[in-house]
């Protein structure tokens, strides 16, 4: 009886707390649902239209993606897909449904959902070059065309078909920029391809009217007047998209003019892309086609907006899981080899920089500016960063070039991938770092390598000179931990056997690097502290945790919590007071 009573006494508080927690949880969920419904309905009911007088308007385009692989194994799938059509140059929002190119603070997903005023969003930050988003879609398009040797004035009208962000989330494998001549004739298309690694490759393909445009049409597709309403082009593949295809081969495109040369009535999207191997064999084709009529966003009623959102909100979130599912089928069922990701080439855009790379990039930029400005040679160096949204291309001029501009030598340095920044700090000598990363690891591209020795001098690293004991200890530790990074070598496919990675060893004594000396002598106290602690974390991760700095940060956080807990325990412990009797 006593044991039963004790068990009852033990279980009653637990059941009471459980019921209370369920009540609190249910109340919280209900409150959140009410808030979400009120907030969502508020967005739908908003009338914030800011239309410009454009006859094409903004379209919501229900679509379907079809993918059919022919070699080496047959495989096909199809799924619904939502795209929007935007006249490039438009800025504004439409009745809480979609905003386009509005100058606004970037909103992170999912933490910034509550700050959004539109369900769908097309933002210039997500297209073409990583920086210069203040130029808008039209400005970024013009810059890209100029970089490709094309005259933007030849394409005064442009129409973008892309997957929009929904509540700040976006997975957008490819966007299509339709470019029209002054006579409203579809003359070119920019295909902006994104892969799952965050890399990007825009292709400018010009109209080719020399051959029959129906030759590469997808099976079952019927076209009328192909020479008037379609654009056909082909180009070499040089971008890693699917892990089941190499970077070799070529693409062929057949795209229907969504306005059929009128630029007035939207007729739908119809795009077919064929991939051909380097041996000339057709490997696969992918097709994006409208499914039903496109919807003019500004003409939707309240009920139509509600119905559309409930019908299509889930599509964007499922695009990536669908791709993963099909990839699993190709790998496990069809047993296709996996092609490992190579570093991007010059015309591609690298992934976004991680936290360490974002902190190193401005220091490298300052160091490069310092080298150019103090150079005794007349140099003009254009620096193009990689993976950085906050800052873009910049040109540095030496003092001698300022006085003798006609004799100045021009050099362009383009960082191909942000991994360059974390690799560069591993080297004790700039000359080896730049030439090694350019020739062997392909993380940097230089248009005139013969000028590099005039900028990065081949000389011995400077001795360690510091003004504080903390700096001395940090940079001594950096000297001991620094070693040349391993060469970037990967097996080409999962069937190959990875060869052991060989690290190049510098036989000269490792002093501090020239960039270390620059930070010590020419940077602020805050920059110096950030730089030295970051390098120690990176080097410790290389030695102990296979380069995973996240483990170092986690251990550091645990250590700080442990010290804080010990101090709190020590000072809050009751003192042992004895009373004398």
From TrEMBL:
Keywords noted in UniProt: Membrane, Transmembrane, Transmembrane helix
One Pfam family linked to the record: DUF1365
Record-annotated membrane-spanning stretches: 23-45
Protein name: DUF1365-domain-containing protein
Native species: Trichoderma asperellum (strain ATCC 204424 / CBS 433.97 / NBRC 101777)
């Amino acid at each position: 009886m006593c044991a039963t009573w004790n068990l009852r006494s033990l279980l009653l508080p637990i059941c009471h707390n459980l019921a209370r927690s369920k009540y609190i949880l249910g109340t919280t969920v209900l409150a959140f649902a009410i808030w979400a419904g009120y907030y969502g309905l508020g967005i739908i009911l908003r009338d914030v239209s800011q239309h410009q007088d454009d006859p094409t308007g903004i379209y919501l385009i229900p679509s379907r993606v079809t993918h059919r692989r022919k070699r080496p194994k047959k495989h096909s799938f199809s799924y619904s897909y939502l795209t929007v059509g935007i006249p490039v140059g438009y800025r504004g929002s439409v009745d809480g449904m979609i905003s386009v190119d509005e100058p606004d603070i970037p909103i992170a997903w999912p933490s910034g959902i509550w700050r959004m005023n539109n369900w769908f969003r097309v933002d210039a930050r997500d297209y073409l070059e990583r920086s210069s988003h203040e130029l808008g879609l039209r400005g970024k398009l013009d810059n890209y065309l100029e970089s490709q040797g094309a005259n933007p004035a030849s394409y005064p009208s442009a129409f973008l078909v892309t997957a929009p962000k929904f509540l700040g989330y976006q997975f957008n494998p490819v966007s299509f920029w339709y470019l029209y001549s002054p006579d409203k004739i579809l003359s070119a298309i920019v295909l902006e391809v994104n892969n799952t690694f965050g890399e990007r490759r825009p292709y400018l393909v010009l109209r080719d009217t020399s051959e029959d445009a129906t030759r590469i049409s997808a099976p079952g597709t019927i076209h009328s007047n192909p020479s008037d309403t379609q654009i056909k082009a082909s180009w070499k593949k040089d971008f890693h998209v699917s892990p089941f295809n190499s970077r070799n081969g070529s693409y062929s495109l057949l795209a229907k003019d969504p306005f059929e040369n009128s630029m007035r009535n939207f007729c739908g999207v119809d795009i077919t892309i064929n991939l051909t191997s380097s041996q000339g064999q057709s490997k696969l084709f992918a097709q994006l086609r409208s499914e039903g009529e496109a919807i003019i966003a500004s003409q939707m009623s309240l009920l139509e907006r509600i119905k559309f959102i409930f019908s299509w909100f889930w599509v964007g979130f499922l695009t990536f899981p669908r791709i993963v599912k099909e990839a699993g089928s190709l790998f496990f069922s069809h047993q296709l080899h996996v092609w490992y990701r190579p570093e991007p080439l010059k015309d591609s855009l690298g992934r976004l920089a991680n936290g360490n790379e974002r902190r190193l990039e401005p220091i490298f930029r300052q160091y490069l500016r310092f080298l150019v400005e103090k150079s005794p040679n007349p140099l003009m160096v254009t620096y193009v960063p990689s993976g950085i949204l906050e800052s873009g291309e910049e040109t540095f001029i030496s003092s001698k070039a300022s006085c003798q501009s006609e004799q100045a030598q021009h050099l362009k340095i383009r960082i191909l991938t942000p991994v360059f920044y974390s690799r560069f700090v591993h080297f004790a000598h700039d000359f080896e770092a730049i030439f090694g990363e350019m020739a062997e690891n392909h993380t940097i591209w230089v248009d005139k390598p013969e000028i590099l020795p005039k900028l990065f001098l081949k000389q011995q690293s400077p001795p360690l000179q510091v003004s504080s004991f903390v700096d001395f200890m940090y940079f001594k530790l950096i000297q001991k931990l620094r070693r040349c990074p391993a060469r970037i070598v990967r097996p080409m496919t999962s069937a190959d056997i990875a060869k052991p990675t060989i690290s190049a060893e510098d036989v000269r004594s490792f002093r501090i690097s020239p960039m270390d000396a620059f930070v010590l002598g020419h940077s602020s106290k805050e920059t110096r502290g950030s730089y030295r602690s970051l390098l120690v974390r990176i080097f410790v991760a290389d030695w102990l945790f296979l380069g995973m700095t996240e483990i170092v940060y986690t251990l550091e956080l645990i250590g700080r919590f442990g010290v804080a807990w010990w101090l709190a325990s020590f000072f809050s412990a009751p003192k042992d007071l004895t009373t004398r009797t």
